[in-house]
Automatic annotation (TrEMBL):
InterPro entries (UniProt xref): Methyltransf_11, SAM-dependent_MTases_sf
Gene Ontology BP term (one): methylation
This protein's name: Arsenite methyltransferase
Molecular function (Gene Ontology), one example: methyltransferase activity
Keyword terms, alphabetized: Methyltransferase, Transferase
Methyltransferase type domain mapped to chain residues: 37-133
Family matches, as Gene3D superfamilies: Vaccinia Virus protein VP39
Lineage: Archaea, Nanobdellota, Nanobdellia, Nanobdellales, Nanobdellaceae
Claim: Transferase is one of the keywords in the record: yes
Length: 179
């Protein structure tokens, strides 16, 4: 387990989220008893917020980079957080079908070539009626195989509930149909 000694990680996270990302509308969707998946959690900037919002549920944090998961595990231990489970994985196979109430995939599909596979996995793990927030950053590097356009992102989600794009990136909300 590694320690992040440069700056108090919680203060840094709060600064980034409050002043740069400002995702208040997303946080409103998370209720106390929900199971939340932070897909591509990185060092857990959002995971820790979800752990407070879903205090009676479970927050799953998955990242393909073991170093990011180590930093998150350090924070979980330091702040004695009990409702977060972390995994190092490039896919969502550790998560059961139809088990997630809210899925958060922020700027992950633009860091991988596994676009179709991950979107299938996102739809699989959401419970019917569950909601996913998925965003990508615009990639200005030509011929990057990870690059995914906003049109492609939208097309992978049949009938997204809301979709947006601006100069920096694109994002959508997807609600899994209730059959
Ligand atoms: C730009 S960072 C975003 C981190 C976090 N979502 C945030 O907004 O603070 C992208 C993260 O996705 C992770 N990642 C890339 N491909 C992945 C995959 N196939 N499965 C899980 N995580 C992945 C990277 O390791 C990295 O931590």
């Amino acid at each position: 387990m590694i320690e992040d000694r440069r700056i108090n990680p919680i203060l840094l996270d709060n600064f980034i989220i409050k002043y740069i990302d400002n995702p208040k509308s997303i946080f409103k969707l998370v209720k106390s008893n929900m199971n939340v998946l932070d897909h591509g959690s990185g060092p857990g900037n959002y995971t820790l917020i979800f752990s407070k919002l879903a205090k009676d549920g479970t927050v799953y944090a998955i990242d393909s980079d073991p170093k990011q998961v180590d930093i998150l595990n350090y924070k979980i231990k330091k702040y004695n957080i009990k409702n977060v489970k972390t995994f190092v994985s490039r896919d969502l196979s550790v998560i059961e079908d139809n088990s997630i109430d809210f899925l958060f995939s922020k700027d992950v599909l633009c860091c991988t070539t596994l676009h179709e596979e991950l979107v299938m996995d996102i739809k699989r793990v959401l419970r019917p009626g569950g909601i996913a927030y998925v965003s990508i950053k615009n990639n200005f590097i030509k011929n990057d195989p990870r690059n995914i356009s906003y049109k492609k992102l939208y097309s992978l989600f049949d009938n997204p509930k809301h979709k947006y794009n601006n100069l920096i990136g694109s994002w959508l909300f997807y609600r899994k149909p209730v059959i």
